[in-house]
Hints:
Layout: E1 7-9, H1 18-24, E2 31-39, H2 41-50, H3 54-67, E3 74-77, E4 80-84, E5 88-94, E6 100-105, H4 111-126, E7 132-133, E8 140-146, E9 169-173, E10 176-178, E11 181-191, H5 197-212
Parallel strand pairs: 5-8, 6-7, 8-9
Antiparallel strand pairs: 1-4, 2-11, 3-4, 5-6, 9-11, 10-11
Amino acid sequence: MTSRYSKQPILLQGWDREEQFTFFKNFDQPFFNVHTEVDLTPLYAYCKRTQTSVFLAYLYVTLQAARTTENFLYRLEDGKPIKYDGLDISTTLLKDNQTIAFAHFPFQDSLTDFCASAQQVIQEVKSSPGLFHGYQGPDNLHVTTLPWFPFKGMEHAFQINQQDPGIPKIAFGRLETREEKVFLPLSIALHHALGDGFHVHLFLENMAGYINAFDFAG
């Protein structure tokens, strides 16, 4: 598999996930889904103050959180566990003809740079004829957004494929406002050979940390 980021093999023997990995890796459907929400209020307020895209801002903090949660860097290659040193995002975008495309947003250190790079990609994709735009390797995080209706969770389309690299899949729903707070519904699908519910918790904690860092920014 080609990749943008370097990777290291994980020695299975003696790995703390050895038994869990061996147990789950050959399941016909090895992904488990968690449906939850995050308090987006500090980041949402920052975006409104600075006229920043809320959509791109929550993709940015999602990618930051995934890159700092070790199990979200794990993948399968030839049936063996590996760890990538970094991640980008592949997200669905709605094109002008109301069909979707899968677009690559490369990682950027700052929200400003991420938004500038992503906006350029969005403009290119809107009128493009193809389904795939840009890099689509295993060192991506797969993301989609369903902003049109109340969101309680999502089950992803998948093929039963023993060569699946185990890329985490995250779906976002329509923002909800309750008691002056803004919440972002999300569904997280994680390959059970590579992580458990506790690691989803760690990801959500990391994501909350990146969101809350915008409380005093701008």
